Amino acid sequence: MGDDARDDGHDGVGAALLAVRGITRRFGDRTVLAGVDLDVAAGEAVGVVGPNGSGKSTLLRCIVGADEADAGTSVLAGRTVDEREPAIRRDLAVVMDDTDFFPDLSVVEHLDLVARAHAQHDAEEVVNGVLDEVGLTEVSGQLPSTLSSGQRRRLALASAFVRPRRLLVLDEPEARLDVDGVEWLGARLLSEKAAGSAVLLVSHDPALVERVCDRVVRLGPPTDD
Ligand SMILES: Nc1ncnc2c1ncn2[C@@H]1O[C@H](COP(=O)(O)OP(=O)(O)OP(=O)(O)O)[C@@H](O)[C@H]1O
Ligand SMILES: [Mg+2]
Question: Which of 80, 85, 147, 162 is the most exposed, having the fewest neighbouring CB atoms within 10 Å of its CB?
Answer without folding.
Answer: 80
